[in-house]
Design a protein that fits this description.
By secondary structure, this protein is of the alpha/beta class. It folds into 2 domains: 112 residues, Gyrase A, domain 2 (2-Layer Sandwich); 284 residues, Rossmann fold (3-Layer(aba) Sandwich), CATH 3.40.50. It has 14 helices and 12 strands. The strands form 2 sheets. A 6-stranded mixed sheet has the order 3-4-5-2-1-6. A 6-stranded mixed sheet has the order 8-9-7-10-11-12, with helices on both faces. Strand 10, helix 10 and strand 11 form a beta-alpha-beta unit. The protein is flat, with a radius of gyration of 29 Å. It binds guanosine-5'-triphosphate (GTP) and magnesium ion (MG). Magnesium ion binds next to helix 8.
Length: 436
């Protein structure tokens, strides 16, 4: 494989930066710009010296060398720890490219690790999720994927499908052998039903747990001046949105984020909804209506001036919570409603209401299959197991049952990325950062 290079740490000023290389010729390429010969490097080694591009010394660095297959990618690899200035980083990368390396594309290091059998596809996806995690829970969940714990929970299911399939195939191929255990249709139904139940459990956990990674979109909506922006600020503990006593203050959508029970909540503060002649405000109101359509939950904010029925009709069919703000000055309070005072930061009843509405108290971090690709494949497997059950129940020919099981088995190989390695990878790894 060609030698690739990329900055693996953040592209900004810091104490140190890490430049990564991988590929057959990697030690040769680095030796051309390093003060020591790395071509005789051992399994895993550490070196100290100067990087020189042929004209001048660029930096004094520490280098880690990994001889294939003892590296993340499974190839010869080098990690250069240089001083954390983007000028230095650019000079070193340029020198490496001039000496035979090429810039890596997004996810190319992980993709090579996968292609070289160092990690399966679930682990690779876990790496990306880990980098993007915005809560401790999301990070813990991706750690299960990264370490292979998640793949492990699927292996017994795949084994059961494979075993059943091979028993049926033997029956089809060698009907004349009497010593081969005959598998009855009742047995097929029993084993398939167990597999289906296990898969359904996995799908259920995955669909609940994906909220840790995806988060929820919550729109703050209501009449002008009811305290929507104040509520956003109170929820994120930051003075982000402009608050004034003038109705029509917010025009553009203001975004904020906080974690609720470990779930990232993406908040969208919107322009107060009302009939407006003001061109700019009207654009803001249209944007607010778009956000309402995209949100998973609407916080419909009301103050002492009460509910506007026309506005409420806009959101009533979406998942929503009525939030009575300005509780500090409200005279009458009905025990069932959610009362908050954004100005005093008193928003606990709303947080409790959101936890209940979004069903966040019944979930906990578990190894799970959470992304659309993984859940889609699990559902495809269930559908084909289901077909096998129906055919067995209707006493259909055995090869029909075996065909459905074979498709289910192939999908189960796809889940961990064990079939068609080359077709699968490009789309998945393009979502990664360069250098990972
Ligand atoms: N007493 C009281 N006043 C509040 C509270 N929350 C907001 N206000 C006041 O209500 C006024 C409007 O607040 P904003 O947060 O700007 O209201 P908004 O709904 O975002 O208004 P627009 O952006 O114009 O639609 C300000 O004067 C706030 O200080 C509260 O909990 N109690
Ligand atoms: Mg506002």
């Amino acid at each position: 494989m060609e030698t690739i290079v990329a900055l693996a740490s953040a592209p900004m000023k810091s104490a140190l930066s890490i430049i990564r290389l991988s590929g057959d010729d990697c030690f040769n390429v680095v030796s051309k710009v390093f003060s020591k010969d790395l071509t005789k490097t051992k399994k895993r080694d550490i070196h100290f010296g100067l990087i020189n591009d042929g004209y001048k010394d660029i930096d004094q660095v520490v280098l880690l060398t990994y001889v294939a297959p003892h590296s993340f990618t499974g190839e010869n690899s080098v990690e250069i720890m240089c001083h954390g200035s983007m000028l230095i980083v650019n000079e070193i990368i340029t020198a490496l490219i001039q000496n035979g390396a090429r810039m890596a594309v997004n996810g190319e290091f992980s993709s090579r690790a996968y292609l070289n059998g160092k990690i399966d596809l679930i682990q690779a996806e876990g790496i990306n999720d880990m980098i993007n995690a915005t809560s401790e829970e999301a990070k813990d969940m991706s750690m299960y994927a990264l370490t292979g714990e998640t793949s492990k929970i699927f292996l017994p299911i795949r084994k059961n499908i494979g075993e059943l399939l091979s028993k049926i195939e033997v029956n089809i191929d060698y009907p004349e052998y009497e010593d081969i255990e005959e598998i009855s249709k009742t047995e097929v139904v029993r084993v398939c039903s167990k597999i289906k139940a296990d898969l359904k459990d996995l799908i259920d956990v995955g669909e609940k747990n994906r909220i840790y990674l995806d988060g929820v979109k919550v729109a703050i909506v209501g009449k002008p001046n009811v305290g929507k922006s104040s509520l956003l600020n109170a929820l994120i503990h930051e003075d982000k949105a402009i608050v004034t006593e003038i109705a029509g203050t917010t025009r553009d959508i203001v975004e904020g984020r906080f974690n609720l029970n470990g779930v990232p909540v993406y908040l969208y503060d919107t322009a107060g909804l009302h009939e407006s002649e003001d061109k700019i405000e009207q654009i803001g109101i249209n944007k607010a209506k778009e956000v309402i359509n995209k949100a998973d939950l609407i916080l419909f904010v009301i103050d002492e001036t009460g509910i506007d029925d026309d506005l409420f009709n806009l959101i009533k069919d979406k998942k929503h919570l009525l939030v009575y703000n300005k509780a500090d000055i409200l005279k009458v309070k009905d025990g069932h409603n959610i009362y908050v005072s954004a100005i005093d930061g008193d928003v606990k009843p709303l947080l409790d209401g959101m936890v209940k509405m979004l069903e966040l108290d019944g979930i906990s971090v578990k190894p799970s299959f959470t992304n659309t690709r993984q859940l889609g494949l699990l559902k495809n497997i269930v559908n084909h197991i289901d077909l096998a059950i129906k055919d067995a129940e209707n006493d259909e020919p055995t090869d029909l049952i075996s065909a459905s099981l074979m498709i289910a088995y192939n999908y189960s190989l796809d889940l961990l990325g064990e079939s068609n390695k080359n077709d699968l990878t490009d789309e998945i790894f393009s979502r990664f950062c360069v250098g990972k």
